[in-house]
Structure formats: C-alpha cells, structure tokens
Amino acid sequence: MRKYTSAWLIAIIILSVLLSGCTRSGGSTKIELGEVTRSVFYAPQYVALANGYFKNEGLDVELRTTAGGDKTMTALLSGAIDIALVGAETSIYVSQQGSDDPVISFADLTQTDGTFLVARKEVQNFKWDSLKGSEFLGQRKGGMPQMAGEFTLKKFGIDPHKDLELIQNVDFANIPAAFISGTGDYVQLFEPQASILEKTGQGHVIASFGTESGKLPYTVYMTKKSYLTEHSEQVQKFTNAIRKAQVWVKDHTPEEIAKTVAPFFKDTDQAILVSSIKRYKEQGTYADSPVLSEDSWNNLLNVMSSAGELKQRIPVTQLVDNTYATKALQSH
C-alpha cells in the first residue's frame, strides 16, 4: 500500500512542476510574448500591459524583445515563446518551407507600414523620382520594411535595384547610426528614430511608406496551430485585452498615449514619443480592430510577389484565424 501511495505522491509532484510552467500565483496564466523589436509602432500593446488589460483577463504576460523576424519566428517554433508579435509575412515563409504545425495569425495590431523616408538634407516639394541615382540605406531583404519600401518605389516608377545604389548590409538596429555617420542620402526609418533625427537636425522626414503602400497586416499576433488548439481560452483572453487597448488608443490623445507607454521607453524623450505617436495616429497605422481583413492580406501577397518572395498565393483562411478577433469585437 505504501508503495502505491509513494507512486501517487511522485505523480502529483511531477504534475505540480509541469503546471507551474503554465500558471503563477493568483491563478493567472503565464504567456511568453516575443516582440520583433521595441517600438512606439506597437503602442497599443504597451497600453494593454500598462493599463492591466492582460491581468484583468487573468493573464500574466511576460514580454521580451526577440530582435528580428527570423529570430522571433525561431523562438516561436522552438517553444521559447508562446505568442509572437511579428510581420504576417513570416507565417507565409514558414508555410512555404513546409510545416506540420503551421503558424497562424489571430489578431492584427498595425495596419500600415511603419517606416518613413528620411533625407539627409531638407527637401522642398519632394517628388519620388528625385531618388533616382541616390544612395539609399534600406532594410533587410525579404523583411516587410524593405518589401513595402520597394513596393512604394515601384509604384512611382523607381526600380530599387537599378535606379538606386541600394545598401542592405547594415543590421536593423544599426541603420540609424549608419545614416548619422554618413551612409546614404536617404534612409527608411521607423519611429521614434525618424523624429529623433529631425530633432537633432541630422535628418528630415519627407514621405511615408505607410501612406503609400496601403493597408497591410504589417505586425500581427501569431502562434502555432497546436497552441491555438490547446490554449484557445487563453488566446481569446489575450485578444480581448488587445482589443481594449486598441479602443483606448483610438479614444486618447498622443500626449496621453505617450505618458502611458513611457515606462517602456525610458531613454526616449517625452516630446519624441508624442511626435512619433501623433504621426502613426494621423496615418491610421494602429489597427482599429484585431480582425485581419482579406483585402489587407491580399495586398501583403501583392507586396511579397512584387519583391519576388512569394512562391504561390495563399488564401487568408489558410494562415489566419479571425475567430478570436471577431469574438473580441462582439464583447468589447
């Protein structure tokens, strides 16, 4: 009898250890969230954390910056993170390589490209064709910033690989520093880097790639299909929190948003945060809804096809599950 009792005790201890990886004190469910970079581009996410929307849903979300789309996807596929905030194109790349456990997007966060065209010198009456023959400091090949940038340039009759001296050998994190040090006549930058360069007089924002490239599922929340199946309730709660944050961001001023997300940008001047958020709000970058639309998905396929990165068109229903986003809309 004692032998069986010991076996039960051992089983209970093992089960407790396993469960401890899923829950924390207070009964909240732990979710490991990886973001592709730290940026005010993702302001609604930081609002959800700062305002306690995840906690109100019974979730303990641990955020980490996984620095790059390839590293973020590796972390997701390996199980190092549960949910990834990354460009929707990454799920297509995984699908093109073949996967028994596909990566599914379930909530939209940003609906336009987040980069701006920054010139070294102030430009009056800017026209896109003035870029021809210039030295252009671009982004990583195959990444959404570069593909959306190329899509825009082609829209204005510019072949980025023939009409420009295109530089793509600089790591994402080092692009602003490379431009400041003298590389390139023009550069493609996210906020707050664009506003920082303007404030210091080292660059001038002259156009928006987000405005010109149209609606895109630029940065979305995604996870493996197996995780959706096993943790459906948690994913719904996560999406509910994001939806609350989207509504809050829509209803509040750049100044109010900047104050709320400031703890996530301790080294960034408050005025720069306000300027960055104002730009994104004015061009409709922050998604009003977590639902990923078929039109924006099809535009993504067009952008990838134009960049030569799409093997075949994939219907939105194959890699997107809007069930959670639709339910979040109905509840909030």
Automatic annotation (TrEMBL):
Any single Pfam family the record assigns to this protein: NMT1
Keyword Repeat applies: no
Annotated ranges, domain SsuA/THI5-like: 43-252
Intracellular or extracellular location(s): Periplasm
Primary location class: periplasm
Keywords from the named record: Signal
Record flagged with keyword Signal: yes
Family label: Belongs to the bacterial solute-binding protein SsuA/TauA family.
Record PANTHER family: ALIPHATIC SULFONATES-BINDING PROTEIN-RELATED, TAURINE-BINDING PERIPLASMIC PROTEIN
Protein name (database record): NitT/TauT family transport system substrate-binding protein
